[in-house]
Amino acid sequence: MSTRPTVIVLANEKGGTGKSTVAVHLAVALAAEGKRVRLLDLDQRQRTSARYIENRMAHARRHGLSLAMPEAAVVEAGADPAAAVAEGGADILVFDTPGRDSEEGRRALALADTLVTPINDSFVDFDLIGRVNPETFRVERPSFYAETVWKARQARARADGTTVDWVVLRNRLSTLEARNRRRVGNALLELAPRVGFRVVPGLAERVIYRELFPSGLTLLDLTHLGEPSMSHVAARAELRELLAALFPAETRRAAC
Ligand SMILES: Nc1ncnc2c1ncn2[C@@H]1O[C@H](COP(=O)(O)OP(=O)(O)O)[C@@H](O)[C@H]1O
Ligand SMILES: [Mg+2]
Question: Most CB within 10 Å of its CB: which of 73, 208, 240, 244?
């Protein structure tokens, strides 16, 4: 008998926040742990995460490498993401969604056990989940995306009693903007208990994330990246910390 797979959804109604980058790294990390992972790309226009895995397969073939490989597919427009949940054959489904409101995105949100929302460390991105006072940077109220998620969680709780774990992840953290970083960090911590998300350790701004796409490699494949630099090693440590915070070891075992 097949049990329902664990569903992880990367979502934020904004482009360029790191959804696809995190989706791929997450899917590869979980596949490397021996899970059967299916990465489903709902962004039919950009297809970033599906293309990433295609590149990864081509790279592995070209160089005769055995790389941890999630299955990847694009969910075509109009198709119901719930079909992937019913299909079976996977322990974990990772949905990557487009950076805009979409029917498929909303349907995926309704299936999430874990919702991961990456945001760039900027009040422009923060504005989707909360409004801040322009003088004090204190949170005044949650905004539309927090309300969208709240409604999806209510619906899920009513449907099958599941409490959706909502995780906000700070991405592209800059070492140069300490004041902005602190302000965004404080605003997130203030908003978290009000709308019910967790803030996990984020990822620093690193050129390597932009360079890896053509080969489909991830920071978890450091051994295939030539001589790793200090920055690569630090980036991998950061990623591992993120994964551990997202999925404590017990839940990872339970999902298998
Ligand atoms: N931590 C990071 N450091 C540097 N560049 C990053 C980082 N995360 C993502 N990027 C880059 O930012 C851009 C947007 O990321 P992407 O994952 O495609 O976002 P989304 O899927 O939310 O639109 C890409 O060029 C990606 O390589
Ligand atoms: Mg994307």
Answer: 208
- CATH number for position 79: 3.40.50.300
Domain count, the chain: 1
Exposed, middle or buried by CB within 10 Å (0-12, 13-18, 19+), for 185? Answer: middle
Q: How far is the CA of 88 from the centre of ligand 1 (A)?
A: 30
Closest C-alpha residue for ligand 1 atom 24: 210
C-alpha dist (Å) from residue 216 to 62, 70, 120 = 12, 12, 23
Domain membership of residue 254 (yes or no) is: no
* Residue at 179 is within a domain: yes
Residue 209 Cα to ligand 1 midpoint, Å, equals 7
The model carries a pTM of 0.95
- Tens of pLDDT along 69-120? 999 999 998 899 999 999 989 999 999 999 999 998 999 999 999 999 999 9
Domain membership of residue 38 (yes or no) is yes
- Cα of 181 vs its chain's centroid, Å: 20
